[in-house]
Write a structure and sequence with these properties.
By secondary structure, the chain is an alpha/beta fold. The strands form 4 sheets. The protein has a 7-stranded mixed sheet with strand order 2-8-7-6-5-3-4, with helices on both faces. A 4-stranded antiparallel sheet has the order 11-12-15-14. The protein is globular, with a radius of gyration of 21 Å. About 3% of the residues have low confidence. It binds pyridoxal-5'-phosphate. Pyridoxal-5'-phosphate binds next to α5.
């Protein structure tokens, strides 16, 4: 069923204040999400934090079922975390890397993941191999296949939707060749969950990280990790506490058997409940309907921007999503962003993908070429898009 735009806008207070085209940064939360978070804080105020958590125990448990339903997993394969990076890192840092093995990544791998992998590369003497793009700017699955055939690959890590490009990488093809090679496939889905259907079975990933605040419209400081049940035992968390493991025998400990082994005991319960509400909200709209509207609005924006002589649109890919990257001749990205902010239009700036990120001299992020990133969601309107384009025309 198509999305009732007026209804979702009525449930989104922020649309009265701003034209929010920074959904790849952090979306406007819906009223049900805000009420869920504030409602729980109110209970913490009224009866105490532990007591409020106890009261909400069933709803808290349902968050795992909701996230599992969102991505086609089982609840015991889900852990909750405070950021996408922490979720991704909890699994990746726990991987038993053999010295001298190789990790294959795409050119648009998220920069934070690249930094983490470089640290792991130093620790374990790994080689990070950056796969080529195909002619469309997506990861070249043929090159991946050839690198897998060369052998000695510990892991393939891919970012599903890059932070600064409107493309959707062919993750299911990557999953297929990884599975055939018996190599662990880690998918960063932080920019794809919430704006399109994401299903771990059809994608064939073993690990998936998602964040709450972006297209899922959850509160900040929320995220989740999926670890396929069959690989869970291979990943011993780098840090344990009384939630992830229990003491056993005189000197031993026993790590829990589900994905919550990657969590810490203490957490923001209100945020987690808010994340669950956001996931249920997305599921009730239907991710197919969300994707259809988001892709349609983004294409509208790309086409309108392409017609402006001073504007260059940078997105690649065969399948595109809600992220639109562009530059304006004669203005740097920061200036464009400031001008739009003056008119209460929220966009962000981002580095061009990825040789820029990989080749940026250490500690000198200013060397990256920045572009403007406008990212639409289903609650945006044609009129909002036209307003943005008029200001650049
Ligand atoms: C593709 C991608 N992966 C991971 C992240 C990190 O998510 P978080 O900021 O929740 O750690 C981001 C954040 O922008 C992202 O764009």
């Amino acid at each position: 069923m198509a999305i009732d735009v007026q209804a979702v806008r009525r449930q989104t207070r922020g649309v009265q204040n701003v034209t929010h085209l920074n959904n790849a940064g952090s979306s406007l939360v819906s009223r049900p999400v805000a009420e869920t978070v504030m409602g729980h804080l109110r209970r913490e105020e009224d009866i105490g934090g532990y007591e409020a958590a106890e009261e909400a125990a069933d709803r808290l448990d349902n968050v795992y079922s909701s996230v599992a339903r969102l991505i086609g997993a089982q609840p015991n394969e889900i852990a909750l975390a405070e950021s996408g990076s922490r979720a991704w890192g909890a699994a990746v840092y726990s991987f038993p890397f053999g010295a001298g093995t190789r990790v294959l990544i795409g050119r648009t791998e998220y920069s934070g993941n690249v930094v983490a992998l470089r640290q792991l590369a130093r620790r374990h003497d790994l080689e990070i191999v950056v796969l080529r793009d195909d002619p469309y700017g997506q990861v070249d699955v043929g090159h991946l296949q050839r690198e897998l055939e060369r052998g000695n690959v510990a892991m393939v890590a891919l970012t599903h939707v890059p932070m600064a490009n409107g493309l959707v990488n062919p993750a299911a093809d990557v999953g297929r060749v990884c599975r055939a090679a018996g190599v662990m496939f880690v998918l960063d889905a932080c920019q794809s969950v919430g704006q399109m259907p994401v299903d771990v079975e059809s994608l064939g990933c073993d690990v998936l990280a998602g964040t709450g605040r972006k297209f899922l419209r959850g509160p900040r400081g929320t995220a989740f990790l999926y670890v396929r049940a069959s690989v869970l035992e291979q990943l011993e968390p780098v840090m344990l506490d009384g939630h992830s493991a229990v003491p056993s025998g005189a000197n031993g400990f026993e790590i829990r058997g589900d994905a919550r082994r990657f969590e810490s005991w203490e957490t923001g319960v209100a945020g987690r409940l808010g994340l669950g509400r956001a996931v249920d909200y997305a599921l009730s709209l239907g991710l197919d309907a969300v994707q259809e509207r988001v892709a349609w609005l983004a294409d509208l924006l790309r086409n309108a921007l392409s017609a402006v002589p001073a504007v260059t649109v940078h997105d690649g890919g065969l399948t595109r999503c809600g992220i639109v990257t562009f530059s304006v001749r004669g203005s740097d990205a920061g200036t464009v962003r400031a001008k739009l902010a003056h008119h209460r239009i929220n966009v962000s700036v981002a580095p061009l993908p990825l040789d820029e990120v990989i080749s940026v001299p250490a500690g000198n992020p200013d060397a990256a070429v920045m572009v403007v990133r406008a990212s639409v969601h289903y609650y945006n309107t044609e009129a909002e898009i036209q307003r943005l384009v008029r200001l650049l025309g």
